[in-house]
Amino acid sequence: MVRWLLSVPGSSVATALLRSADTAMYKAKQRGRGRSEVYTEEMRAAAQNRQRLAAELEQALARGQFRVLYQPIESAHTQRTVAVEALLRWEHPTRGNISPAEFLELADESGLIAPIGDWVLATAARDVAGWTADGIVDGHLALHVNASRRQLSDSSFVDRTLAALTESGLDGSRLVLETSESSLVDNNPSVLRTVGALNRAGVRIAVDDFGAGQSSLAALRAFPADLLKLDGTLVRDVGRTDGADDPMVRSLIQLAHSLDMVVCAEWVATEDHVQRLRVLGCDLLQGHRIAEPMTAERFLERQRRRTGSADTRP
Q1: I want to staple 168 with a disulfide (CB 3.0 to 4.6 A). Which of 125, 218, 222, 305 is the partner?
Q2: Of 84, 230, 205, which Cα lies nearest the Cα of 144?
């Protein structure tokens, strides 16, 4: 740090110090409340990489570098595919595939999440509506799309969402918007207004990754959600021989059912998970044991194999 500051012109030292302090503060916030961090050269390198990534992210949508994958969600009891979750992927021309964990938070902070999210919804809604029209899926298959707290706080989000549904021809009742449990805990009036307007249009709301953060059972009761997605950290040990995590998962499923919410388990990775979650009363299953995220083309192939027909169009 000292060697680096010695290379900075005198008039810029104060600015450099403030920038460094800001970087350290950002790192502290990432790791939780009430923490302090000492600025390091690694932080500076990470901050520079983040700035480059932010600049490239602005151009990624216009340059067609994003794509949507679909992960099937099955009924725990009928094994039928009842929904697909649209998952964003960034295929960078030089960096290769960039994990969503590396850029979604950046997109949200910069405000780029709005146009990127609109593109994901429009693309996925168009695909699902097309599959329905071609007879590949029935008219009840739901589409799950992620929506951040920032998106739900945007006063124009409802109009943009309904416009995308109208343009694609997809009914609002087939859309499920997934948001984090932080949206639930904050009790933000803007978010609640947005959710209320979407509910009136038939759009359902899911609380995603429940159990991974500051879960609030009281807030869950007040938040107008239709579906609860159990975080994979709760699911991964379900079915162990000692049954240690089963009581917690069972209690959450029962609580959600008492609130008229459907329960979906994420990270379903083994047949033991499938069998035990079914016994515990879970409604929906999602994870690699069910199906990995796949392109639209692979999803169509999967549907045709499962229906035993090469072409289900009339």
Answers
A1: 125
A2: 84
Question: For the chain, first and last CA: distance in Å?
Answer: 69
* SS3 of the chain: helix, strand, coil, percent, to 5: 50, 15, 30
Beta bridge partners of 97: 91
C-alpha distance from residue 167 to each of 77, 126, 263 (Å)? 34, 8, 30
Paired sense of beta strands 81-92 and 66-75, if any: antiparallel
| Residues in the chain with pLDDT values less than 50 | 2, 4-5, 11, 309-314
Sheet strands (E) in 112-246: 142-146, 175-180, 204-210, 227-230
Best CA proximity match to 265, nearest among 302, 313, 211: 211
Contact 108, 84 (CB under 8 A): no
Instruction: Kindly report the length of the chain.
Output: 314
DSSP state of 274: H
Q: What three-state secondary structure class fits 218?
A: helix
